[in-house]
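Structure, all three chains, one model.
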Amino acid sequence: MPRQMEGSKAVAETIARCRPEVIAAYPISPQTHIVEALSALVKIEALSPCEFINVESEFAAMSVAIGASATGARSYTATASQGLLFMVEAVFNASGLGLPIVMTVANRAIGSPINIWNDHSDSMSQRDSGWIQLYAESNQEAIDLHVQAFRLAEEVALPVMVCMDGFVLTHAHERVEIPEQPAVDAFLPPFVPRQVLDPDDPVTIGAMVGPEAFMEVRYLMHAKQRLALDAIPRIAGDFAATFGRESGGLARGYRLEDAETVVVALGSVLGTIEDVVDGLRDRGERVGALAIRCFRPYPADEVRAALAGARRVVVVEKAFAVGLGGIVDQNVRLALAGLPVEVHAVVAGLGGRPITSASLERLLADAVAGRLGGLTFLDLRAEIVERELARLRDGQRSGPHAENMLRDIGIVASGAV
Amino acid sequence: MPYQPIKYYQAGSFVVGNRLLDPEQRTVQADPRRSNTLTSGHRACQGCGEALGARYALDAAMRATGDRVIAANATGCLEVFSTPYPESSWQLPWIHSLFGNAPAVATGVAAALKVKGRSDVRVVGQGGDGGTVDIGIGCLSGMFERDDDVLFICYDNEAYMNTGVQRSGATPAAARTATTQAVGGQPGNVFGQGKSMPLIAMAHEIPYVATATIADLHDLEAKVERAMTFHGARYLHVLVSCPLGWGTASHDSIRIARLAVESGVFPVFEAEGGEVAGACRIRRQVPVEDYLRPQRRYAHLFDPVERRDVIELIQGRANRNIARFGLLEGS
Amino acid sequence: MFQVRIHGRGGQGVVTAAELLSVAAFLDRRHAQAFPSFGSERTGAPVVAFCRVDDRAIRSHEPIVEPDAVVVQDPTLLHQVDVFGGLRSNGFVILNTARTLGELGLAELDERFPAGHVRTVAASELAREHLGRPMPGAPLLGALAAVTGVASAESLAAAIRERFPGRLGEANAAAATAARLTMLDAVHA
């Protein structure tokens, strides 16, 4: 039964149907509506038995999830941006311990400067943490991915991050179909841990591993993530069979068949990209799109197979590696190594800057006409940055660019240089 | 622990032999069926106060709960010397996560047990002073505020010992550490407010707070057992000497802890619901100098020149403790 | 696709209005997407919310740059925010005011758009009358639906009642109906 509801609420209701036993919650925009809705569901015992713990920081949130998961409870938390960074020590700890925690990351930019709007810099900063990373294109996919995530996490014994664009998806009211409880129960068996803290069978978890064994332990983490490359499509297939809806998996092509130009992206921008592709196709352009659904483990084979026939690839991404360039771009180039495909990195939508269909059309026109370089910052206001760069070259004061830019525009009345 | 009158005639000692007590009142360690929760083979230094304290505390917890305890341990000496992979000294379910999150991990364990209806299993969180008073204080305060059902034990050796004796928020005034060296005009740790974690715990009005030392291990056991009669957040702060960090002889670990108690430097008391409920009286008060002299971490107070002014300040602190907690008869 | 942009101030129910519109369209068995322009919560600050309605599934989440209709909940925004920016040449305006366009200095606006596309409705007054409080969202939606057909009156009423329980829902629905009637009356006049 479809319903019209806010993305966050839909996620919360779906999480509840996955029967988490311990939820640790610390608020941060734009994830707040998820934990608020879950708190109510637990309070009215719509979700029971479940311990909902209001923790004192995100670091505590992940730590509580670690303790709970190690004791055999299905555990969940949600965060974004600064919160994700604040818990990074625990994020790595969770994957190192092989605990099947599921976490929603309501993608939001990382400061400084502080910015509460959507981009992918938060989850991208944790791409090497050992967590599985899944990206949702729509609210329907976001809720579907959470159901798959619990099963995936518990099967491969790795934590899973479900990434959904903050505000853009979390705060959008749209049509969703919440999976029914009996179907979720059939799809998601109870959590049976690999090892668990239990006085009936004591184990020591978290010993200090020295140089003689550390490499092997870390290699196994990598190997385990690579195994997930098989589990993820299989679970997505089971999901489709159970719920009658395609979602998740490693990557999905859109009108790739004879595409000369392919746009690659993650998350909600794909909706706009698909509209643009349709428009261009109507005008006879051979354009397609590739949605990377699972970013870690990285589905290099699927990406290569999807893009091998293209002439050029435009990677549109909402984060970047400072001092280097695109992140997804680098990963795509890796997958296409040795093939004669042009790859263009386009960094877009940082800090919530809208990515419009008009901009994308202009971008693709540039790409087709050969006007696109290796790295482009979409819709960058060049005149503003040029003034600041000129100041830097002249050796003038450094410091926060945001405030310095204001000086150039003349908003800050300063007597000194 | 109920009082039992004992006649003894040993001279030169204040220690009453365990075998003079009724069997039920004897230390857990006297029981051949004890859990040996922290069993032999760990890599602690000779004379390690923390190993001694942890062994007594955990065995007492196990006896009090019928061997049903799960422990969450912070990074630190205890964790490092007890779990040199692939070996472990622990004979209970035990998890080490990070340095600053042991209280939060313990909260998570307790929550999972509650959800699963396992009310028979109790949770102990433990760590050193660094992990409790500094980097872990946020998580600890959160655990207190929520009154999570966890007993948290801090083994306080008054510095970051595992990493090489650096100053922590629990390092006492004037003590030498690697980051408060005995050099310059004001050698050793600066005089400041000092963080009293027991008082901070009491300010959260949790059910039970107590301090103890390795000088009276029986008292430590009794306090662990008493703590296990409560549900909710409980805190135990145990002074454990460190021969390496304090610069004492390894055979003096218990003696130096006793001097900390008898000088008033370390007050031993219990509190319930945020109010002091009782204190262990000082049997024979000693001047703080008796406590400071045997420790090389205070050597700069005596050599090359005696720092009478600093010693007086430390004595003043001890006097304040004595007055505040009623540590002497008639005080 | 029909795209609506709603302007107001924090606390006036702008975001709720967009959501209600999307639920009404959903009840009409259409696809709808509503979202606010996001910012830190602050009562009184200018707020914008959006709603797009279509008969096909809506994939894009890009902001609405060229709305088909603009609803202005608070006329004090008229000279502070560019509320009509991007409005399509055959677009609609629903403006909350008891005054005339001329009195607001917007006479030329009426000329830019097709006849009957720029409408005023005394929504705050209607709300005060039916609800006891000047929350203009529901009556403005009633007017919008009547003028543009973006949602049916029945579905709008149902959406309002689902969102606001009991007496509050009835009052809001009544205000919406009253506004709708003033729109139809004006057309027939």
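The mean pLDDT of chain C is 93.
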